[in-house]
Amino acid sequence: MFSGSALHASEGTGESALTQVRTTSPELATALQDLKTALHTPKTPLMFDNGAAASNCAEYSNLLTAHPPEESVRNAEIRAEYLVCDAIRLISNEPFLAKRHTLPANAAKALLERLDLRSFPSSLRNRTTDRSHTLKTLLVSGTVKTTQNSVEVETDEQFFSLQIAAVISHPALAGNLKTRRSEWIVWVGDEMKDGNYKSYRTLIVRPPTPSSRGQYTGSMYPTE
């Protein structure tokens, strides 16, 4: 469900008490500027396992509270249109302030080299080992393309992509800005080239503490 208070998140609320959303996706930035319109913008119908279909973000969110989307390759393709709905749903759970953001130059490289693929479900997780559990170490033969906010790895058998859509900084206790909790909204594209498997999901990535060289971990949103 979407929080109505989030539609007027910045009114009468100090910035230190707000969730700070720094968007890197133009689509998400536009949606957060006008949530009412974004919630009801028509999309390709997405089928759910109870036989119902969602055709916009509001219907999608309501159906997700009780039912998962139907599992089929075509439905998975359509779900790619609804990734922005996942982000809106997550962000609008609490008052927020959204701004456009430019990521550090090494952000996508960090996902390539340090995102632990054992921490969330994908077509790659069953192939991970203690030594090989990042995109860089697991898909060593793949062709890698990176931008400031995305990384794509393509092999003869599959295509795997990660796009950072937003960086979220949650309010800390007692307004201590130094202890704000940060996480990334990342859109995952996971395809096998034989056409038998496609998945487009939203991943919540938790960066390690800045002073460490630890790994990034993730969890799928929403959980189903």
Largest sheet: 8 strands, mixed
- What is the C-alpha radius of gyration, as a whole number of Å? 18 Å
Number of strands: 10
**Percentage of residues assigned to helices:** 10-25%
- Secondary-structure-based class equals alpha+beta
Q: Output the number of helix runs.
A: 7
Mean pLDDT: 89
Assembly type of the chains comes to single chain
- Globally, the shape reads globular
Q: Beta-strand percentage?
A: 25-35%
Calculate the terminal CA-CA distance, rounded to whole Å. Answer: 15 Å
Low-confidence stretches: 1-12
- Tell me the count of domains: 1
Order of helices and strands: EHHEEHHHEHHEEEEEE
Provide a concise account of the structure shown:
The protein is 22% helix and 28% strand. With 224 residues, the chain is α+β, with helices and mostly antiparallel strands.
Describe this structure in words.
This protein is an alpha+beta fold and 224 residues long. The longest helix has 9 residues. The protein has one domain.
Topology overview:
Elements: E1 19-23, H1 26-33, H2 35-40, E2 46-47, E3 53-54, H3 57-64, H4 73-79, H5 83-91, E4 96-100, H6 107-114, H7 135-138, E5 143-146, E6 150-154, E7 158-170, E8 181-192, E9 198-206, E10 217-221
Parallel strand pairs: 1-4
Antiparallel strand pairs: 1-7, 2-3, 5-6, 6-7, 7-8, 8-9, 9-10
Helix pairs in contact: 3-5
